[in-house]
Amino acid sequence: MTLWRNIPQRDGIGGITMTWTKVADIKGILKNESNSEQIISEAITQHCSWSLVCPADFEVRQDDRIYVGTDTPYMLGMYFEVAASDYGKTDAIVQNVDLIQHQTGA
């Protein structure tokens, strides 16, 4: 798994652009917590919640993205958005991260 963060960078003409940047490779355990389906505007939508247990050596922030395999923010496919993390709030050797599954291009 890889951790990506949306980082502001100067665009060279006085402005700032947000760019997805790879922050770290992660080894951890993904667990599916819940799944649901709804009909919104006559279309079926799915909501999947996951959790990630990973080492506490690096900071995982809210709104970071987790990609599995070779996927990146610049490809169509599935990713996990970080909803919350307990980084820095405990002395444990692992951190628990709440994730929401998304699909781009679907």
Task: Walk me through the topology.
Elements: E1 2-10, E2 16-25, E3 29-40, E4 43-55, E5 65-67, E6 77-85, E7 94-104
Antiparallel strand pairs: 1-2, 1-5, 3-4, 4-7, 5-6, 6-7
Task: Give an overview of the whole structure.
- It is a single chain.
- This protein has one domain (2-6, 31-104).
- Helices cover 0% and strands 63% of the residues.
- It contains no helices and seven strands.
- It has strands at 2-10, 16-25, 29-40, 43-55, 65-67, 77-85, 94-104.
- It has a seven-stranded antiparallel beta sheet, with no helix packed on it.
- The model has no long low-confidence stretch (mean pLDDT 86).
Please provide a brief summary of the model.
With 106 residues, the chain is mainly beta. The protein has strands spanning 2-10, 16-25, 29-40, 43-55, 65-67, 77-85, 94-104.
Key structural traits:
106 residues, seven-stranded antiparallel β-sheet, globular, 63% strand, mainly beta
Please report which band the strand proportion falls in: under 5%, 5-15%, 15-25%, 25-35%, 35-45% or over 45%: over 45%
Secondary structure tally: strands: 7
Q: Which strands sit side by side, in order, in the main sheet?
A: 2-1-5-6-7-4-3
- Contiguous low-pLDDT stretches (5 residues minimum) are none
Largest beta-sheet characterization = 7 strands, antiparallel
- In angstroms, what is the radius of gyration? 16 Å
- Can you give the helix content as a percent range? under 10%
Distance, first to last CA: 21 Å
* Spatial shape: globular
Please give the count of helices. Answer: 0
Category from helices, strands and their pairing: mainly beta
| Tally of discrete structural domains | 1
Give the ordered list of helices and strands: EEEEEEE
Q: How confident overall, as mean pLDDT?
A: 86
